[in-house]
Amino acid sequence: DAISRGIASTRWPGRLERIAAQPEIYLDGMHNPAGAREIAAFWEQHLAGRNIHLVYAALRDKAVDEIAGLLFPHAATVLLTAPPQSRALSAPALGQMTGHHARRFEVIPDPREAFERALELASPGDVIFVAGSLYLVGELRRYWISRAAAPATT
After folding, report:
1. How many CB atoms lie within 10 A of CB 32?
2. What is the DSSP letter of 30?
3. What is the per-residue pLDDT across 98-109, written as a single tens digit (0 to 9) for each?
4. Which of 10, 94, 117, 135 has the highest local Cβ count within 10 Å?
């Protein structure tokens, strides 16, 4: 019983973490093909028929073409960016390497601008999914928290 309660109450920030409801926003630090397969399965089971706007970045040493082949065809829009990390693959290079897998993609080097673009594109019933790098997820998780805490401007 204690194990079940412990598992049920476990929080793992940045791993299939839902941070908003309308549109739904998920963060997942997936950075390998096995993780991409899990995300694709989650999309099929829980998000079928909904528009997914994927904000994606990767480090240079990752299997980006394989990951893109697993995820990009299922996304309405892919927003390619790069986390502020020296090992990051640049957004333009990522676009050249993986853009052919996407129905529609945009290259937006700044991750915060890519995230804001996803928010512009998403309707309340859509889903924004941030994935591909723990660095990206950490950056945008901090940004979302600070954005939500900022006083509204008129």
Report:
1. 14
2. -
3. 999 999 999 999
4. 94
Q: Any idea which residue has 């927003």 for tokens?
A: 79
Task: Kindly state the tokens that stand for 33.
Answer: 């093909």
Residues facing residue 53 across a β-bridge = 77, 128
Q: Can you read off the two tokens belonging to residue 93?
A: 């290079």
How many other C-beta atoms are found inside a 10 Å radius of the C-beta of residue 104?
13
pTM recorded for the entire structure: 0.90
Residues 111 and 136: beta-carbon distance below 8 Å: yes
20/36 Cα distance (integer angstroms): 21
User: And the tokens for 122?
Assistant: 């998403």
Secondary structure of residue 12 in the 3-state scheme: coil
Residue 79 in contact with residue 116, Cβ under 8 Å?
Answer: no
Supply the DSSP symbol for 88. B
**Distance, CA of 91 to CA of 126 (rounded, Å):** 24
